[in-house]
Amino acid sequence: MHDGTVGETADGGLLMILAHPDDESFMVAGTMRAVAASGRRTALVCATRGDAGSVGDPPLATRDTLAQVREGELRDACAILGVASVELLDYRDRHLADAPDDEIRASLVRVLRRERPRVVVTFDPNGVNRHPDHVAIARFALDAVTAAADDRWHPAAGPAHRVERVVWPSPVEPWAEWRPEALAQCAGVDFIVDVAAWQADKARALRAHRTQHLGIEPRWFAPPAAEASRSTETFRLGWGRAVSVRPAGDLFAEL
């Protein structure tokens, strides 16, 4: 009889399951850099190549070349942030919800079992800003996290692995509020990560997404508080082990 036993949880790192190139730099760049600097492994799965995004102004790509250009930008940003593995699933931008459930689940389970992370970062159920791809990857990610822990799903993908915590970006926009004392009082702020030591790397990673500068510059580089807003990242517990005191200063707190 199948007893439902799952594999041992490895002393793993951080896996991001996101929708587009630049999501990682918007959401979790400083934290990724800090985790990598601490010696833990960081990895990213990006479900699309962002082919429906901006080509830049003046143009830095054509519609035909944008996917390739944005993949290059993503890899440049991740190199700055110390991300050990970057995998793209090649679904169409703005059509991620059409991905076959079984197919994308199998792909994500394979990555989860290979990387064996303790913490996964993805979007919340509303996709933060209701972008349809963000909403879709949030659904697919949590589905895969639970499937990866059950060895009846995709046994060829490797030994089962139970993620300990899934976190989402908090509902507080970093360019709207960045003061830790104020953030600590905000609902949905379960983790406040001080990334001041890495804010310059975060800035470089953001600017590596050169085709997307029209959306990046006014949010992250407008004075007077641009550096301060890049120095703190906040997250909400989505699933898994809670912390005893909120907000915690580390996504791995009490694991």
Notable traits:
7-stranded mixed sheet; Rossmann fold; 255 residues; disordered N terminus; alpha/beta
Content of β-strand: 15-25%
Whole-number count of domains: 1
Distance between the termini: 31 Å
Q: Count the strands?
A: 7
Strand order of the largest sheet: 3-2-1-4-5-7-6
Mean pLDDT score: 93
CATH fold category name: Rossmann fold
**Per the principal axes of the C-alpha atoms, what is the gross shape?**
globular
> How do the SSEs run, as a string of H and E?
EHHEHEHEHHEHEHHHE
Molecular structure report:
With 255 residues, the chain is α/β, with parallel strands linked by helices. The protein has one domain (14-240): LmbE-like (Rossmann fold). It is built from ten helices and seven strands. The longest helix is centred in the middle third of the chain and has 17 residues, at 132-148. The two termini are 31 Å apart.
Write a concise synopsis of the structure shown.
By secondary structure, the protein is α/β, with parallel strands linked by helices. The chain has one domain (14-240): Rossmann fold (3-Layer(aba) Sandwich). It is built from ten helices and seven strands.
